[in-house]
Amino acid sequence: MSAVGLSLLSAVLFGGMSVGLRFALDRERDVMVGTLATVSTALVVALAWAAAEAPARGIHASAAWPFALAGLLQPGVGQLFATLAIRETGSSRASMVFGTAPLVSVAIALVFLGEPASAPLLTGAVLIVGGTVELARERDRPAHFRRIGLASAFVTVVLFATR
Q1: Residue 39 Cα distances to 55, 70, 120, 138, angstroms
Q2: pTM
Q3: DSSP-assigned letters across all residues of the chain
Q4: CB of 161 within 8 A of CB of 101?
Q5: In 3D, which of 6, 86, 80 has the Cα closest to residue 37?
Q6: Per-residue tens of pLDDT for the chain, all 163 residues
Q7: What Rg do the C-alpha atoms of the chain give, in angstroms?
Q8: Which of 159, 146, 160, 158 has the alpha carbon at shortest distance from 31?
Q9: Given this model, what pLDDT does residue 84 score?
Q10: CA nearest 25: which of 98, 88, 113, 108?
């Protein structure tokens, strides 16, 4: 499978996770339980892939610590904020904020890593900002909506982008 195919599959599964998590939170409101279920499932899948890959490449645990640390932040801690965001704002609004992660990644790359700006990059950034502004203009919000959920979603975005 190509990198583009894997990226598309990842996006579909991420969207499905948001919707599925929202359904689960309707039954069990505890954010810690939802986070534990989500992260545990992801860990099992990751360990299965790592076990399948290990015979071909070997095990290099000493070189893996930076990746383990990044994994503790996102999806580890970040999933807690994502679950809270979905519970407080709903999956569609939280996913809209999650969609700004590329914008935060681009900002980090431009400001801290000295990446050059280009027309396609800036066009994409403007489109992301436009979608976010349109979300903010929404007048009628459902009764379960809480602004703290948007803040939690943005914390998730920052953790994801810095990873």
Answers
A1: 25, 14, 34, 32
A2: 0.71
A3: --HHHHHHHHHHHHHHHHHHHHHHHHH---HHHHHHHHHHHHHHHHHHHHHHHHHHH---GGG-HHHHHHHIIIIIIHHHHHHHHHHHH-HHHHHHHHTTHHHHHHHHHHHHS-PPP-HHHHHHHHHHHHHHHHHHT-----TT--HHHHHHHHHHHHHHHH-
A4: yes
A5: 80
A6: 688 888 788 778 878 888 887 888 888 778 888 888 888 888 888 888 878 877 777 777 777 778 878 877 777 788 888 888 888 888 878 888 888 888 888 888 888 888 888 888 888 888 877 877 777 676 776 666 777 888 888 888 888 777 7
A7: 17
A8: 146
A9: 86
A10: 88
Amino acid at 65: W
Tokens 């920052």 -> residue: 158
Amino acid occupying residue 72 = L
Which amino acid, residue 121?
L
